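Build the 3D complex.
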Amino acid sequence: MKTYIYNSFCFSAFTGIFVLAAFSTVSGNYCEVNICHNGGTCVTGSGQSAFICVCPDGFTGETCNETETGPCNPNPCKNDGMCEVMVNSRRGDVFSEYVCKCQQGFDGVHCQNNVNDCAGQPCKNGGTCRDLDGDFNCKCPSPYVGKHCQLRCISLLGMEGGGIAESQISASSVYYGILGLQRWGPELARLNNKGLVNAWTSASHDRNPWIEINMQRKMRFTGIITQGASRMGTAEFIKAFKVASSLDGRTYTMYRQEGQPKDMVFVGNVDNDSTKTNLFDPPIVAQFIRIIPVVCRKACTLRMELVGCELNVYLNTTGCSEPLGIKSRLIGDRQLTASSSFRTWGIEAFTWHPHYARLDKQGKTNAWTAATNDRSEWLQVDLERPKRITGIITQGAKDFGNVQFVSAFKVAHSDDGQYWTIVKDEKTKTDKIFPGNSDNNVHKKNVFEPPFYARFVRILPWVWHERITLRMELLGCDE
Ligand SMILES: *[C@@H]1O[C@H](CO)[C@@H](O)[C@H](O)[C@H]1NC(C)=O
Ligand SMILES: *[C@@H]1O[C@H](CO)[C@@H](O)[C@H](O)[C@H]1NC(C)=O
Ligand SMILES: *[C@@H]1O[C@H](CO)[C@@H](O)[C@H](O)[C@H]1NC(C)=O
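Done.
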C-alpha cells in the first residue's frame, strides 16, 4: 500500500480520494470559493490547517492541481485489489513495477478473476450453489440441511410414536359426538390412531379452526403427513390447509414459499384413511406449529405426523463454526444496522457505515464506527432466519492513521428484534463481557458456550480505544 505523508497527516491513497492539509495565513472561510481543482471538495480545516481538499481519483497536491503518477496510478488492480510499488525488486524472472494484492475470492495478476467457489460442486443432494467472496452458500432442497446439504432432516417427531405428549397439543375447538359422549379432542390427532373415536375434529360452529403442536423447544420442520378419519361410516378429512408457525407463541407467521406473496395452501387428503405427505421447502424453524384447515369434507378431521429434526444435529461446536457470511457478503448491506455512524470530518464520503463492519474489509473507511463514544451504541446483524451461533470474530480499524478498536463488549440476541437477551456468564449469571481487540488488525475470536439460537445479534461495545470501531464475522451454522 502506498502511503503519503504531508505535514502531520498520514494518508493511504489506494482507494482514490486524496486528502491534503494546507497551511495558510489567510483568514476567512476558505471554502466560500472552491479553491480545489479537478473536482476536489473543499472542507474547512481545524487547528493549523485552514482547509482540506478532498481530491478525486488520480489527482493530488494541496489543491488537487497535480496528477498522481507512478505504476499504481491509476490503480491497475481490479476488484478492490491493493497496488504495491516494487522498488528495484524482481519477482521470479519477471521485472515488475508493481504487484496487486487481491481480496479473498479473487486471483490473477490484476485480481481480475473471481474465483468460483462453486467449481468443486460443494452442494450435495441437489443443493444450489451460490458463489460468494471466498466462500459459497448451498440452498438445500427439503429435507436436506447443512453447509453442504449433506444431512437428512427426516425424523418423525412423535405424534404417532407418542413423543409428543397430550399436553403439547391444543386446538381452537373440539367436536362432541353422540349426545356429547364422544370427544374428538386434539390429543387424538395422531397418525394411524385406531378406535371408534380416533382423530381431532373441530366443532361444527368453528369458522376459524386450527390445531397446534408446541414442541417445547425450537425445531426444524421439513414436512407434515396428514390423514382423515371416518365417523359413523362417513369419511371426514381436510382437503386443503395452511400452516402457521411461531418461535415464541406470541407472533405467528403464515407459511409461504420463497418469493410468493400469498400464503401457501397445501393439498390434503382425499379419503378417510390414506396419508398425504407435504414437504416444507424451505423448512420451518419454530417451536409452535399450527395447521389451519381451509377446505374440509364433512368436518375438519385430522390425524397427523410432523417430520423434521432437532436443531443441534451437531453434538459439539466444532462442526458448527462456519463464517455466517459477513465477510463473504452472504449477509447483505441491509442486514447490518447500527445505532449511529461516525463521519470523519463530517464528510459524507467518509461515513463509517454499519455495512462496512465486514471482517478484513479494505479501503479508506473500512469498518463501522459509532457517532458517539457511548455504551448505548450497538451494531446489529439480522440473519433473516434463526441460526445457531457459536462464536464471533472481531477486528478494529484505522481512521486515517488513528488506531481504533473495541477492547471489550457484550452480546445480545433476539428472535424478533424487539425482545433482547444479553449473553450471560455461565458461572456468575451476570452479563458476560467478552475480551475484544488490542490493535487495528488482529482477529480476536470468542466462542459462545453454550451456543445460542437467534435471528438477530447485537454487539454492545463496553470498552474501546479512541472510537468504537468494528469489523466482524459471526460463526455458526443453520442447524
Ligand atoms: C500546485 O499548487 C501548488 C501550490 O499552489 C504549487 O506550488 C504547485 O506548483 C502547483 N503544481 C502544479 C503542477 O501546477
Ligand atoms: C375408509 O378407508 C378404508 C381403507 O381405504 C375403506 O376400506 C373404507 O371403506 C373407508 N370408509 C369410508 C367411510 O370411506
Ligand atoms: C465434534 O464434531 C465433529 C463433526 O461431527 C467431529 O469430527 C469431532 O470429532 C467432534 N469433536 C469432539 C471433541 O467430539
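The radius of gyration is 30 Å.
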